[in-house]
Write a structure and sequence with these properties.
Length: 186
């Protein structure tokens, strides 16, 4: 193919030497690539869309997985920032092109729990628990530790669907209160 396109060898000579049909050799240079993409061109382009997908994945990993509306708004702002002439497709079409993304139902994660889950807070909690157990001599009297059952009405909102990495076990989105926050009664 390279000898024919560079002019070193004629089509008929290459056909005889390599055993390829001359019709194939004439047709092949006309098609620049063997992969033909049907439909409209990508609005953001392949490289920018990869960056956009990476942004969505990173937001999902830290507990801020965007919902479909947020993805549309982010795509609009992304295109505006890059001065790209845009028209946007549906989230499901973008997910079809990027098979590692899917629309999933998220699990609620309160702001308090998100802030509280760091190494310092957890270490402080267990140090305090150990101090309470030691001061009240609960290590020698485990029968003095009681279980408290919770009952009441849940006051948190229902988590919606978000766009996240396909195959992720749990996808979080922030809620206004703790999951299962109830009035406690003994």
């Amino acid at each position: 193919m390279t000898k024919v396109s560079s002019g070193e060898m004629g089509v008929n000579a290459a056909s005889r030497e390599y055993g390829i049909s001359s019709r194939t050799l004439r047709r092949r240079p006309k098609s620049e690539s063997s992969i033909v993409r049907l439909g409209r061109e990508l609005v953001l382009g392949v490289q920018h869309e990869r960056r956009f997908v990476a942004l969505i994945k990173s937001l999902g990993k830290i507990g801020f997985a965007p919902d479909a509306t947020a993805v549309k708004i982010m795509a609009y702002k992304f295109a505006e920032k890059l001065n790209i002439n845009h028209r946007f497709s549906k989230v499901h079409e973008r997910a079809a092109r990027n098979t590692d993304l899917s629309v999933r139902k998220s699990e609620g994660l309160s702001v308090a729990r998100a802030k509280g889950m760091n190494r310092k807070e957890v270490d402080d909690f267990f140090n305090l628990l150990q101090e309470v157990l030691k001061n009240n001599d609960f290590y020698n009297k485990p029968g003095q530790i009681y279980n408290v059952n919770e009952t009441g009405i849940q006051i948190n909102n229902k988590a919606g669907k978000v766009v996240a990495t396909k195959g992720a076990k749990v996808v979080y989105s922030l809620t206004s209160s703790e999951k299962g926050e109830n009035d406690s009664m003994l």
